[in-house]
Design goal:
two-stranded antiparallel sheet, alpha+beta, 3 helices, 20% strand, 20% helix
């Protein structure tokens, strides 16, 4: 299974140069629906990268993420390391569930 990321040519160059995927602060996203229900004190502590599992190209995503001038890259769905964080690993931020993410606790802090 694959996942897809719509991005600009400039961002692709940065990905290839650094061999890293950039994550953006959750409260900096254009779509505020992505953060609905999340406690206010967490919104500046979580970082995301937007991908889709839809293998069919989507004109809305082309427009939103590339202004119709970018590319769509494909990766295997499980291309990153996974770290499981137990309840309470994040400190007293109001988040109490176990979660999985691509960063270790040391990288998060």
């Amino acid at each position: 299974m694959s996942i897809f990321h719509y991005t600009s040519i400039k961002s692709l160059a940065l990905i290839l140069e650094s061999k890293k995927i950039r994550f953006t602060r959750l409260d900096s996203q254009d779509d505020l629906k992505e953060i609905e229900g999340l406690p206010e004190n967490l919104k500046s502590y979580f970082f995301i990268s937007c991908w889709t599992e839809d293998s069919e190209e989507n004109l809305s995503l082309w427009s939103m993420y590339t202004q119709m001038k970018g590319i769509r890259i494909e990766f295997p769905k499980e291309f990153y390391l996974k770290y499981t964080h137990k309840e309470g690993d994040y400190g007293n931020w109001g988040y109490t569930k176990e979660t999985t993410c691509p960063l270790s606790i040391d990288e998060i802090r």
